[in-house]
């Protein structure tokens, strides 16, 4: 049974994966969540991951963590037995006005964090990250805000820098040979289902799993559904009598 290595997204930590880790450990899996420290590039985050991860692992990345996972696949594809990419993307910063708008938005959040603190910034950031009805879930929102507050402004700026300088991962996706699962919240406005379907088209042994009633923070908004998607897929792809059945499909 392969070890699972989990990669958090922007200003996230172990809490974003806590439900999955708890359940998978009970099922006998060895689990590890990576901390990027003060790294300010996806390449450096990938090197940290490779230094800490076992020689062979199931690598799962959420949001920015998905981009880190693709960078790991670029640097050391032989280390991956399986790959899970969640609520993420693969293209570089767009040219022209679209890219400048994204840059301005990210810089505005950094300025808010500098002047008002990480938690206040997180309250604004969270608005588009979870479903509107989940914003009424006090426990969920406080867990997300507590997680954000554990990061420093300097770490936030470093990770935003990494994302603004993100590489094009199209060729990495085309090169993947391990079983690959794409998971996306049904209502993820930042990284929509269509984007995951486009990525899956580039990967031979792939499947898209849509998590109903979820925004971008799918691991926390619908933790049981995400864990079920992971465990069922791992059972299928590890079955000795099957070889990547049902791939290049979208399931919801």
From TrEMBL:
Keyword Secreted: no
Annotated InterPro entries: AB_hydrolase_1 (IPR000073), AB_hydrolase_fold (IPR029058), AB_hydrolase_sf (IPR050266)
Highest taxon listed in the record's lineage: Bacteria
Residue span(s) of domain AB hydrolase-1: 4-228
A Pfam entry, by short name: Abhydrolase_6
Database matches in Gene3D superfamilies: alpha/beta hydrolase
Keywords: Hydrolase
Keyword Kinase set for record: no
Alphabetized GO MF terms: hydrolase activity
Record's protein name: Alpha/beta hydrolase
